Amino acid sequence: MELYEVWKKLEAEQLLKPIDWKEIKKPEDFHSRHPALKLQHSLKISMGFAISFILLFALLIPFFSPWEIKFLLSLVVAGYGFFLWINYRTYKQVTGMLGHALTHSVKDALQQIHTVVYRSIRFQEKSSVLFYPLSIVAGFMVGLFLGAPEKFEQSLQGWDTLILLVITILILTPLTYYAARWLYRHSYDKYLDELQLLIRAFDN
To answer: pLDDT tens digit string along 113-142?
Structure first.
């Protein structure tokens, strides 16, 4: 129930019976339009995806017998764990700075949030250049095994397999990198731009 609906209800009933205050939505129940809170929400989503992928790849490990695949999938899990830790650390910093804004300088707190999130996202973009080829190799090995389990070890020794793997890495790495950059622009950068405009408004 919105606040204006509560007011209408009070007016209509002329305060003859009490209002159930549990029906009134609290401010935190609404999807905030503030860019700092949107950034915080985006970090939550990123952590959710990271946890989902960690669980997915961890559950896949026991289903493959070759040690090469187990090792690669373990590295992918570790990689997502690393990104989960980065996003969690950034989330905690943003949460602390939002609390700081309530008792100290709002402008300084918002500027710190902008700096922390911007550096975190740019670092993750650079780190992904190493992570995506690893994920591609793991996926390639899984596909190779599923295609012909009995010939997996033999296929690894073939030059045609190595050439196909290199081509796959060269094609998919730029595609995944730019797809991730687009997601970062959509999930973070537009809110960082909004936050920067808000910070500049304090000087006007």
So the answer is: 999 999 999 999 999 888 999 999 999 999
The residue type of 118 is Y
Give the angle 49-54-59 at the CA atoms, nearest 5°.
Answer: 130
Q: What is the pTM of this model?
A: 0.78
Contact status, residue 45 vs residue 86, Cβ threshold 8 Å: no
SS3 at position 62: helix
Residues 126 and 181: their CA atoms lie apart, in Å, by 10
Are the C-beta atoms of 106 and 198 separated by less than 8 Å?
Answer: no
Q: What are the angstrom distances between the C-alpha of 131 and each of 19, 23, 148, 176?
A: 55, 47, 26, 10
Contact 50, 83 (CB under 8 A): yes
Note the helical H segments in 104-156: 106-147, 152-156
Backbone angles phi, psi at 14, to 5 degrees: 50, 35
Q: How many alpha carbons lie under 13 Å from residue 119 in its C-beta half-sphere?
A: 11
> Which residue type does 136 have?
I
What 3-state class would DSSP assign to 192? Answer: helix
Interval 15-33: pLDDT, tens = 444 445 444 444 444 455 6
Domains of the chain, by residue range, sit at 35-194
